[in-house]
Amino acid sequence: MVNLWPGISTNNLCDKHLNAAINESLNLFVRHHLARSYKINGWVRNGCVDARDITSRICELLFEMKLRDKKWNYDFTDNDKIIICDYFKKWECSEKEFEMMIVAIENNKNKLANRCNACKERIDYNKLEVK
Ligand SMILES: [Zn+2]
Fold first, then answer.
1. Distance 118 CA to ligand 1 centre (A)
2. Are 67 and 126 in contact (CB under 8 A)?
């Protein structure tokens, strides 16, 4: 399951979740699923990706990785960005799915804090980050 944890500042993610988000987004999301027109409506409904702007989120995650001095050998190429943007042009999201996404993203902090103590310690609950 790809989860980029939208709505949570990248510096609030523990190393494990930061790494997982990047790994999933690049290796699975970009290279395999989107190339095969895999339907990602479920991820959108569950707030795992913010369908409004996925490429910026991936860039933010990679930037955070650099700030932490972690090595990452795969470049997020312009071609990857084109694949994602093209995919979302074709992607059909109902109004209802979009509403579900917004609600789910708003709940992501609680969801992640319940799953991971390391992230929970980093999360600033007073900061509202949903666009
Ligand atoms: Zn974590």
1. 5
2. no
Phi-psi region of 7 (alpha: psi -120 to 50; beta: other; left: phi over 0): left
How much distance in Å is there from the Cα of 124 to the middle of ligand 1? 14
Whether residue 112 lies inside any domain: the answer is yes
Query: Ligand 1 centre from 11 Cα, in Å?
Result: 11
Q: Which domain holds residue 103?
A: 10-122
Tens of pLDDT along the chain (131 residues) come to: 789 999 999 999 999 999 999 988 876 666 666 666 667 788 889 999 898 888 899 999 999 999 999 877 777 888 888 877 777 766 677 889 999 999 999 999 999 999 999 999 998 776 656 55
What angle (nearest 5°) sits at the alpha carbon of residue 3, between those of residues 32 and 118? Answer: 135
Give me ligand 1 centre to Cα 37, in Å.
29
Expressed in angstroms, the distance from the first to the final Cα of the chain is 23
5 inside domain: no
